[in-house]
Amino acid sequence: MIKKLIILIPFFFLSFLVKGQDADAVTFEIQLSKPKLGLNERLRVDFTMNKDGDNFNPPDFNGFRVLMGPSQSISSSWINGVRSYSKTYSYTLAPTAKGKFTIEQATIIIAGKTYKSLPKEVEVTAAVDKPSDQMTAEDVADENLHLVAEVSKTNPYLNEAISVVYKLYVSPNISVSNYQPLDNPTYNNFWSQDIKVSRLTAQNGTYQGKPYRYVVLKRVVLYPQKTGKLEIEPLSLDVTVDVPTSRRDFFGGRIYSQTNKTVSAGNRVINVKSLPTTNQPVNFTGAVGEFDFSVNTTKTELNATESLQATVEVSGKGNLKLFKLPEPELPSSLEVYEPEFTEDVRTNLSGMQGKVSNSYTIVPSFRGKYPIPSISFSFFNPKTERYETLNSDEIIINVLEGPNNSGSLSNSAIGQTNKQQVVTTGSQFNFIKLSPNLTNMGTSYFFGSTRYYLWLLLPLLLIPLAIILRKKRDAIAEDVVGNKIKRANKLARKYLSAARKELGNKDAFYIALERALHNYLKAKLKIETSEFSKDKISQLLNKKGIEETTIYEFIGLLQNCEAARYSPFSNVEMQRDYDKASEVISLMDKQL
After folding, report:
1. DSSP codes joined into one string, 63-79
2. Which of 110, 134, 158 is the last residue of a domain?
3. pTM
4. pLDDT by residue (tens digit) across 562-572?
């Protein structure tokens, strides 16, 4: 028995020695969540070591895109007096193509020695219906973040108001720390008006039956100017999302993973119905909505050469800026001046509300009674889907004092002429002088005269003037930026002049006016503003210190230029827009 113990003792010492060497051995290996995955699945790669190391160098993940990582996790424990240590670097990868790929070696330095992991092969197949791998932060953001464009009506009539509200829905499972717009819609074939969002306020709501918090980012009112299927371009945002993970920090707080997500509201198609042609009034000019109509005068009794104002007014709710007001038919014996157009219109999510009017100044010249006949205004009511016509009352203008109208003379009186016989006296031509009393002026010579010497010295006097002009011309030629600005200013004046010449020709006038406005901005801001949206132009002018009212009037002129392509505009409105353009350019010159 003693001999057997003596023989076994060396084996016990040998086993303890091997265990000690195993405990001190360094391991550094790679672990994959799966050797085979679909194109729409995610791959988790862990590099694990049993000793702490430095200078970890990951491989190039060819064929994959890194979604998350590297994230570190450390595990340390004591079991039966034996210490267990593990440190892991983790990556979450998304495949970029189908095929077989190799995760190459990673390296790390432990206790002064460099260790390498073994390469492993991964096969990527076609996309699977339901990915089975663990969701990444991007996956969580996909399911819990939505940008929605809520349209009030998808099948409106032509020129009927619709509203689009862009809402960002965020699930309680995540939080949004920042967002940035990537692409703003242009609303082609629509008259558009942005409703300013003064403050971003989170509200409680539901999305697809689940509780969400949402923020209204943008509101806009649209009036379709064309029938058929019209497309509203999507609004796109780049959103920074904080996604909670299953890990916690030293104090027990949840650790969040941050990712960027691009969300889009998607294209929306609006089916615009044309206005019915049956029973359409002859005097219909495109008014759509619910309106009241009236014709009023400041007085009905006055003396000749005194003046009064007759106002044609339309009020209510509808496309108040997109139709032409009816014109009164006044007697030719009344002197009538061009009307003054005024508007008091506010725009909210339900559309335009307020009133527009034309005020005519009337001056009678003769005594008498003059009727202002009843005039009618027709519009289409989208609620009742019928045309409605409103008529004004007839108004009698009584001119109390003044001369009588002499235009009622009889033809015999007008045809009478008074003839007088001419009697000759023999002295009809006494004004002709037969003795002119001419005197000799003498003879003068040019050579040697004062004028001769002045002309001789004139070239010498012009030399300094020519030198000064040459220097000034060279200085102007060297000022490249100044010359560009002068040319652009000259071009803007040219187009504004062209717009004035085209008054009365709607299309040509507004094309020339729009060119003049853009060339003015090109001269002042040194950029091609014709390529920018109205929102971008507003931002540029705001940065330059232009007052908000001036910016609003400038953008309003650009909107009128666009609206003129689809709606009738009167000569009065064109003259008003031309005067407003001159005034706005003058104001912007002072502010710039």
Report:
1. TEEEEEEEEEEEEEEEE
2. 134
3. 0.49
4. 777 666 767 77
